[in-house]
Prior knowledge:
323 residues, alpha/beta, six-stranded mixed β-sheet, two-stranded antiparallel sheet, 12 strands
Amino acid sequence: MSYVGPDFDPPQPRRPRRSPLAVAVAALVPGALLGWLVYEAVGGSGGDGGGTAQATVRTSAAATSGAPASSPAGDDKNPNSPAPTLASATSSAPAASGPLKGKVVVIDPGHNPGNFRHTTEIARKVDIGTNKKECDTTGTSTNSGYTEAQFTLDVSHRLKALLQKLGATVKLTHDGNSPAWGPCVDQRARIGNRAHADAAISIHADGSAAGNRGFHVILPGSVHAGAADTRPIVASSADLGERIAGNFVRVTGEPPSNYIGDGTGLVTRKDLGGLNLSTVPKVFIECGNMRDSKDAALLTSGAWRQKAAQGISDGIVSFLHGS
């Protein structure tokens, strides 16, 4: 998502900086390793206090079997190659058993493919606690026209399938056609809240300048204003985000962003309605920059999108297991 419109203002002051090793070390973890690995790195000075911050990035084995994720059937050269077929995309029954049985995960596909047909509706302002912002935007796209809304929905479907196989109950905030536009950023947060989600994630891709590439995970800052009070979820959301970042770089090979986050792949913001209004652990992930040719080649690959879903899934599993 580009920094234009709702949930797209320039980043706010970050948490104390973490060493780039705290994220990138996950790439060294053998894919066949079983169990959970913990890497603790001491970051450099930063933040308001200028002190030393300690960051923990945990990685899990690919899936739960230790095997690399495989690409689903379909034409990998076609960016619209579908994700695995799913039953109801907005809500689902969990698998009969699995390590995530009893856990609830809410996935928020950024934007909606139908938003461009409803510009008046998505332009209306909604309360995000700190101020009011537009309900939603259309999102960005690659130079060839593959839209962020298409990308986020595809990755969300793939992620849902992986988590369901592990026994989780998974809910999507929307499935493109249902609703036909939106939902608004405040509603997206409330869907996770009402589901009493154990973890929630909003899937995005950025629209920065060419040459800017890499992923970053957005963590909620401490906000207490109006309807927003993130204080109870700041620590747990940071834990979730760090685990997702470590696993994402390990599984996908996509580097942490070279234009935001000081190479850590982690950014803290206080201006995002989807985070400000959440009462459950939640993060955003910008999986790459759609306007950079190298990142665009990955984002339009079905095989890479499956890896993206796997990396995010591994991070969520690690968080929910607390190991």
